[in-house]
Design brief:
Lyase 2-enoyl-coa Hydratase, Chain  A, domain 2, 2-enoyl-CoA Hydratase, Chain A, domain 1, 12 helices, alpha/beta
Length: 275
Amino acid sequence: MQDFLQIEREGAIAIVTMNRPQTRNALSDPDAIEALLALCEAVNRDLSVRVLVLTGAGPAFSSGGNLKTLRDSVGSGLGEPAHSRYAYRDGIQRLPLALCNLEVPTIAAVNGPAHGAGNDLACMCDIRIASRHAVFAESFVKLGLIPGDGGAWLLPRAIGMSRACEMAFTGEAIDAAQALQWGLVSEVVEPEALLPTALGLARRIAVNPPHALRMTKRLLREAQQSRLDTVLEMSAGFQALAHHTAAHESALDAFVAAAEARSAARASASIEPGK
């Protein structure tokens, strides 16, 4: 079986493609989960990575669960319900924890259908850009299931409780235009423009200092579930660290030098000729 992930680098950007189009990039197979977990661990250790772009090979972003193996991997084929519970805890439920704790900004370039866990995977990313061909569905209820991978936590934070309930209770798909209207994605582009658009945004992010990016992401994540005073205290600690980085010192020196140069240029221009 081919590797689930294809990983490329463009400078400080990791470009990750789920590369199993024959299963529509299903996530529930153990090796797929392990590949994504290993990726998150490796990126957190590699300070040269500043942004990660995630997309899918073939016509789909991700179909979510592999329905051909679902029964035996996490369902009734395991026998007692307790076995299914542990299969989820030790399997796909490790994925939202790993991705939400991934230290670098993540961009989902959603190239096609993102159903069930595939929709939730997109929600695990910080930013979502969609191809015009993308569709999104919190489709678990259609199979008599519930969002077992954290979708009940992720989706309301992306689009609000009312819209999340509508998607989860109906299981119906929404197209890219509706996803944009609901705030599930930031931008919708033509299919051929998807990866260039995502990489363009990634480059704009990657020009910034790595430690500032990682700490900013951590603050934004923590702020979703913490009190204001807790976030302010964490901000003070992170800012103290940031003030002592070489990146801050060089950026500050460059800003001051540029401001002084502009001031000198304005002063020179204000002097009338001959005086």
